[in-house]
Amino acid sequence: MPAYLDHASTTPLHPVARQALLVALDEGWADPARLYREGRHARRLLDAARETVAGVLGARPDEISFTASGATAATLALLGTAAARRRAGDAVMVSAVEHSSVLHAARHHEQAGGRVVEVGVDRLGRVDPAAFTPVPGTAVASLQHANHEVGTLQPVAEVAERLHNAGVPLHTDAAVTVGHIPVDLGALGADLLTASAHKYGGPAGVGILVVRTGTRWRDPRPGAGPDAAAGGFPDVPSVVAAAAALAARATEIAEEAPRLAGHVAELRRRLPSLIDDVELLGDPAVAPTVGHISAFSCLYVEGEALLDGLDRAGIAVSSGSSCTSDVLTPSHVLVAMGALTHGNLRVSFGRDSTQADLDALLDVLPGVVRSVRASLGAPHLGA
């Protein structure tokens, strides 16, 4: 039976989102910036979506904007704050395990003459809050809410407090957590938050950008207007569906989270007895994790070969750097953690995941690993 276990990359459209999308395609197709009846109706749908998202995230509706993707939202958050706070300084702080969109934005800032301060992590992928002490002239800092490859939660609230004492705003990339665990902007203390709808059951092509009132930010794109964070003519039906999915997920998290965490715990418990020389990444018992993600690396194998073998058996997981896996480059996250980068797999569960999916993976994976090791002439192992 096929098993889809890559929900951290994207997850199927939530049934509530599908229903909302179909209705909004008929009712929200017009340009919400127009003053005629159809435009006003589309605007009401867009405003209602903002209110829904704001209610779930503990924000104000006027703090919510929708972008073309979560990556776009993160880029705008970082570069927009750096641009608005240019007089405060030219330094941007990021952790070494941020999503590639954040790291690329930081490099762009550096190429334009700014400075980048990168903060390392421990072997669990977690930053030390004390390491986020801003250097003089820091304009903005970015720390993900949870890591997209190993699931480790970051001490965002502690870092936010430290930064605020120095007058520096914090952006947190919450694409991994929004829709999977309760996320409250006030409790986190972040000044900007970004998320991606397709990771929690909304449609692809909708990112969420939250800029708290009082945070200096301006759209860094040329010719941007006062509402340019919305990306021009917004896809109102998709935005409506994204908001509906988020509201639905907010009611499901409490019941679903223990089940998915149980799958992760069982996977981590059974893997070492099924496969020799496997390194489990992160540790939920030591550092809290988002709960539905587990990653591990196998010695003497290549991630691409594992993906191919599992795919032939109808099992979908991810490998390599999860945000650039199309080229299967070594994961910058694992490099920063000092972990084994070859033979890496990330398994992520979702609302549709079952025990049968986990069993299918564990039934097939040992044989795939043995086959790949044999093809590479690796030493004989007991797996």
UniProtKB/TrEMBL annotation:
Gene3D superfamilies the record matches: Aspartate Aminotransferase, domain 1 (3.90.1150.10), Type I PLP-dependent aspartate aminotransferase-like (Major domain) (3.40.640.10)
EC code(s) of this entry: 4.4.1.16
Catalysed reaction, written as an equation: (sulfur carrier)-H + L-cysteine = (sulfur carrier)-SH + L-alanine
Residues in Aminotransferase class V domain copies: 4-361
SUPFAM superfamilies reported for this sequence: PLP-dependent transferases
Top-rank taxon, per record: Bacteria
Cofactor: pyridoxal 5'-phosphate
Keyword list, A-Z: Iron, Iron-sulfur, Lyase, Metal-binding, Pyridoxal phosphate, Transferase
Keyword match Iron-sulfur: yes
A Pfam family hit: Aminotran_5
InterPro entries found in the cross-reference section: Aminotrans_V_dom, Cysteine_dSase, PyrdxlP-dep_Trfase, PyrdxlP-dep_Trfase_major, PyrdxlP-dep_Trfase_small
GO MF entries: cysteine desulfurase activity; iron-sulfur cluster binding; metal ion binding; selenocysteine lyase activity
Entry annotated with the keyword Nucleotide-binding: no
Family membership: Belongs to the class-V pyridoxal-phosphate-dependent aminotransferase family. NifS/IscS subfamily.
Protein known as: Cysteine desulfurase (TRNA sulfurtransferase), PLP-dependent
